[in-house]
Amino acid sequence: MKFMSIKEAMSKGSGKVALRGWVYRERGSNKFKFIILRDAESIIQCVIKKEKFSEEKFREADKIQVECSVEVHGTIKTDKRAPSGYEVDVDDFKVIGWSDNFPLHAGQSREFLDNNRHLWLRSRKMNAILRIRSTYVSAREEFFRKKGFYRFDPPILQPTQCEGGSTLFEVKYYNNKTYLTQSWQLYAEAAVQSLERVYDTAPTFRAEKMKTSRHLSEFWMVEMEAAWMDLKEVSEFAKEEIRYCLKKVLEKHEEDLKFLGQDVEKLKRIANKPWPTIKYREALRILKEKSNMDVPFGKDLRTIEEDKLMEHFDTPVVVTHYPKKIMAFYKPPDPEYPDEALCFDMLAPEGYGEIVGGSQRSMDIEQMKEDLIRQGEDPSNYEWYFDLRRYGGVPHSGYGVGLERVLAWICKLDNIKDAIAFPRTMLRWKP
């Protein structure tokens, strides 16, 4: 009989089925062996009855432990007492891979689970998160294809910084040195002069000496860049993208989100409500009047200020026009208010902080050179980037979405490390 997924078997509801997967839980007596079988999406209870098997075959069943891989043939029926509402009365089984004393169990420390990440991926929690992640990335691809964007893949090894020299990972490159990418942005700005509208999903590396639950040294940045867009257009486009992907996750993963402890109805309300846009100066006013926090203009919003600000909102919020002097060299000043930059961040509610960062891009070569010098950089390293302005440059804008940060918010995770299969941090680079 052809094998089917557990979900397909439960949809069938009755009759003969053939299943395969791994043992999620097991228990037994001298008459029965109960196995909770799991595959990529679901679990189901399987019952091996001694009366149906030889003594030798039932002894084999009794040796089955957690994480054995097995094939099962039997009859499925509804059973409200079973974990997923269905049960398989087993006619035959075959152990494919034995498992002896699987080392993971409830109550183990975060460090132990991270040390055994290769096995922890099998947990129902990580399984749910990784499937949601897959859906999110696929939804994003779908969104940009519908919008007429082209996928553009940048180099991972790059000769210059984009987000600050102090966070670069240096790489020996034959007899020279180069760096792991901090962002695709500078190369995407070259691409839009050809393709006009581009997007990508790529690994990103930041050597930030942070030991928080919000930071990773290697993460995935999902970015876009578009010719002719200004700040208002690009920030509204970011809202549209995140909302689209959130709705797709909700369509497919309600039960997974509930399993992870997320309030699905709350997420649905968020997905359908308007998301406000405020200026940095307005954010400072809210912090002062409603949170009794007096933050001077020119100071970047740290985690504590972002968390306090978001106590007054129940949806993501776009904050624009941060102080120019603390922004990257490619973020231009607002012509009307030169101390403000034409940039934005999107902040998630409930303490999840910044999930999107973007800006209109500067077209002023001399201004960018001055900013680079002020930041201790050599402008001559960016001559190729300035060429984009010298030869038919057009106004353009873009942003980057921290994939793991968005997933942490959607999945209600306590630690961003669980939003990626194998986290890399300041203190962890294996397994």
Task: Give me some keywords for this one.
OB fold (Dihydrolipoamide Acetyltransferase, E2P); single chain; BirA Bifunctional Protein, domain 2; alpha+beta; 33% helix; five-stranded mixed beta barrel; eight-stranded mixed beta sheet; 431 residues; 2 domains
How would you explain this protein's 3D organization?
This protein is α+β, with helices and mostly antiparallel strands and 431 residues long. It folds into two domains: 6-97, OB fold (Dihydrolipoamide Acetyltransferase, E2P) (Beta Barrel); 114-419, Bira Bifunctional Protein, Domain 2 (BirA Bifunctional Protein, domain 2). It contains 14 helices and 16 strands. The protein has helices spanning 6-12, 55-62, 110-115, 117-120, 124-146, 185-195, 231-252, 254-259, 264-272, 280-291, 303-310, 365-374, 383-390, 403-411, and strands spanning 15-28, 32-38, 43-49, 69-78, 86-97, 150-151, 157-158, 170-173, 176-180, 197-205, 218-227, 277-279, 317-320, 343-348, 353-360, 396-402. It has an eight-stranded mixed beta sheet. A five-stranded mixed barrel has the order 1-2-3-5-4. α5 crosses α7 and α7 runs antiparallel to α9. The two termini are 39 Å apart. The mean pLDDT is 95.
The named CATH superfamily of the largest domain: Bira Bifunctional Protein, Domain 2
Oligomer: single chain
Share of residues in helices: 25-40%
State the low-pLDDT regions, or none: none
Number of strands: 16
